Amino acid sequence: MRFIRGQLAWMLAAVLALSLLGSFSYELFFVLSLIGLLIVTELTAPFSVTPDWRRRLRWLIALGLVGFAVVVVRRILEILPPEVLPW
Fold first, then answer.
1. I want to staple 14 with a disulfide (CB 3.0 to 4.6 A). Which of 32, 44, 50, 63 is the partner?
2. What's the helix, strand, coil split of the chain in %, to 5?
3. d(CA 72, CA 10)
4. What stretches pass through the bilayer (predicted)?
5. Cβ atoms within 10 A of the Cβ of 40, count?
6. Is 48 exposed, middle or buried (0-12, 13-18, 19+ CB in 10 A)?
């Protein structure tokens, strides 16, 4: 439950901060949530025994990193001029 509360608090803080700054977008929220997931995962890691649900968390983190790569590639393609792209 500590993990869930920490992740929800991080995501709520991210939504509030992005809203107050007037820069809310789904991409930024996704990236901030992924950063929060990584931080909360490390801060709540047990020392001796790893529960089964924490092992399955690796798949969620891997999916999040793939999504992050997609966001980065999309942003790079937006920045590049059309002459550079082969299509």
1. 32
2. 75, 0, 25
3. 22
4. 7-24, 30-47, 59-77
5. 20
6. exposed
Strands (E), the chain: none
Compute the residue count for the chain.
87
pTM comes to 0.83
d(CA 12, CA 40): 14
The CA-based dihedral angle spanning residues 37, 25, 9, 50, taken in that order and rounded to the nearest 10 degrees: -10
Q: Residue type for 64, please?
A: G
Count of Cβ atoms closer than 10 Å to residue 63 Cβ: 11
d(CA 17, CA 61): 23
